[in-house]
């Protein structure tokens, strides 16, 4: 688009989402580096859990040398993006609602490679959302939270962007709650 890159905004600290962070920041002096407050600990390879947090053993976090210049909490804004705390895939995953057009950048809270699937869901032919998610109960709640934003567009870290995603998000969220043995309220 020809515009300068001004910000690097992360959804979470897994290796496939932070791999080029340090190199990009070196090449882009003055760029703002933005991540969720809680997730920033994982960037420093601090795998301690907060009181009440529970989930699978944390892995896949190589850390980065660069330090964030802005830490976000649920509801904070960076440009046109509103941070949406959506734990489950990681303890402090963040999604982002673009307030200009109603798009949700879901990171890995959903994937769309084999249909719309919520983090934590196991499907025999596509087990990755379950294998690489930290807590499937939190992930189901986060899927519901993101769906309730009524996005007009769902952009994900793995798969194509989906236009008019509500019906597919409903099905994915329902399956996520079924696999947790809970009812969707």
Question: Would you write up a description of this structure?
Answer:
The protein is α/β, with parallel strands linked by helices and 185 residues long. The protein has one domain: 4-Layer Sandwich (Metallo-beta-lactamase, Chain A). Helices cover 25% and strands 19% of the residues. It contains six helices and eleven strands. The protein has helices spanning 15-18, 21-27, 39-43, 128-131, 136-147, 166-180; strands spanning 7-9, 32-36, 70-72, 77-78, 81-85, 94-98, 103-105, 110-111, 117-118, 153-155, 162-163. The protein has a six-stranded mixed beta sheet with strand order 4-5-6-7-10-11, with no helix packed on it. The protein has a three-stranded parallel beta sheet with strand order 1-2-3, with no helix packed on it. Helix 5 (136-147) packs antiparallel against helix 6 (166-180). The longest helix is centred in the last third of the chain and has 15 residues, at 166-180. It is globular.
Brief characterization of the structure:
The protein is of the alpha/beta class and 185 residues long.
Strand and helix layout:
Blueprint: E1 7-9, H1 15-18, H2 21-27, E2 32-36, H3 39-43, E3 70-72, E4 77-78, E5 81-85, E6 94-98, E7 103-105, E8 110-111, E9 117-118, H4 128-131, H5 136-147, E10 153-155, E11 162-163, H6 166-180
Parallel strand pairs: 1-2, 2-3, 7-10
Antiparallel strand pairs: 4-5, 5-6, 6-7, 8-9, 10-11
In the CATH hierarchy, what is the superfamily? Ribonuclease Z/Hydroxyacylglutathione hydrolase-like
Structure class: alpha/beta
Q: Which topology does CATH recognise?
A: Metallo-beta-lactamase, Chain A
* Structural domains: how many: 1
Report the β-strand fraction as a percent range.
Answer: 15-25%
End-to-end C-alpha gap: 42 Å
């Amino acid at each position: 688009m020809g515009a300068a890159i001004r910000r690097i905004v992360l959804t979470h600290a897994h290796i496939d989402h932070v791999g080029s962070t340090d190199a990009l920041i070196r090449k882009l002096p003055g760029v703002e580096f933005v991540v969720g407050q809680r997730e920033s600990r994982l960037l420093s390879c601090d795998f301690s859990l907060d009181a009440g947090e529970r989930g699978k053993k944390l892995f896949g976090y190589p850390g980065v040398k660069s330090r964030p210049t802005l830490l976000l909490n649920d509801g904070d804004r960076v440009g046109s993006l509103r941070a949406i705390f959506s734990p489950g895939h990681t303890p402090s995953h963040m999604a982002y609602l673009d307030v200009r057009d109603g798009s949700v950048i879901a990171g890995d809270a959903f994937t769309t490679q084999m249909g719309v699937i919520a983090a934590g869901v196991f499907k025999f032919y596509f087990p990755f959302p379950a294998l690489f998610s930290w807590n499937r109960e939190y992930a189901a709640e986060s899927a519901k939270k993101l769906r309730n934003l009524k996005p007009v567009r769902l952009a994900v870290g793995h798969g194509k962007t989906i236009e008019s995603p509500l019906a597919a998000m409903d099905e994915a969220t329902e399956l996520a709650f079924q696999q947790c043995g809970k009812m969707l309220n």
